[in-house]
Design a protein that fits this description.
The structure is a single chain. This protein has 159 residues and is of the alpha+beta class. It has helices spanning 12-25, 32-42, 50-61, 67-79, 121-133, 150-153, and strands spanning 83-86, 91-94, 105-109, 115-118, 143-147. The protein has two domains: 9-99, Arc Repressor Mutant, subunit A; 102-150, 2-Layer Sandwich (Dna Ligase, domain 1), CATH 3.30.1490.190. 42% of the residues lie in helices and 14% in strands. It has a three-stranded mixed β-sheet, with no helix packed on it. It has a two-stranded antiparallel sheet with strand order 1-2. Helix 1 (12-25) crosses helix 2 and helix 2 crosses helix 3. Bound molecules: zinc ion (2 copies).
Length: 159
């Protein structure tokens, strides 16, 4: 189908394997700390801050983890496509397709804060084209949609 390509979304242990493979393929090491940070991130269904992750990893390891070192790892994950930054939530989310680059379109629930995403390369491709036509170079669409997720919408009436 036009504007579509084959890609696989991962979850759970297979997501962690896919992330490790993607990081190693880019010449980076999969250290114990990086593995712990990725695992903590992958277990969040809401975008997580470096502080949230530092707290979770610290609890798992039984010793305090500095938010700064978590922040540096998250930064590396974003650069290597293992994680995405959700700008409107000022937080991070694990990328469910670490081997495959897309301009993900994030959906963030105003009610419970859960974040999911959809991929539509035709839509984001049109955004890129429009930005280039306006003289922008090195364009990078950031697309985030706020609303109410399917779970929160159940039972909500229009009253
Ligand atoms: Zn995506
Ligand atoms: Zn919700």
């Amino acid at each position: 189908m036009a504007g579509h390509h084959q890609h696989h979304d991962f979850a759970g242990d297979s997501l962690i394997d896919a992330a490790r493979t993607a990081l190693l393929d880019q010449g980076e090491q999969w250290t114990g700390m990086r593995a712990d940070v990725f695992e903590a991130l992958a277990h969040c269904d809401k975008p997580a801050s470096a502080y949230d992750i530092a707290e979770n990893v610290g609890r798992e390891r039984g010793k305090r983890v500095a938010a700064n070192s978590v922040y540096r790892i998250l930064d590396l994950f974003v650069r290597t496509n293992l994680a995405r930054r959700v700008e409107s939530a000022n937080a991070y989310i694990a990328n469910s397709h670490p081997g495959c680059r897309h301009d993900c379109i994030f959906l963030i629930c105003d009610s419970c804060g859960a974040a999911t995403h959809i991929d539509n390369d035709r839509l984001t491709g049109a955004l890129r084209e429009a930005a280039r036509a306006a003289g922008f170079a090195d364009v990078r669409p950031v697309v985030e949609i706020r609303g109410r997720c399917g779970d929160c919408d159940v039972g909500e009436s229009e009253a």
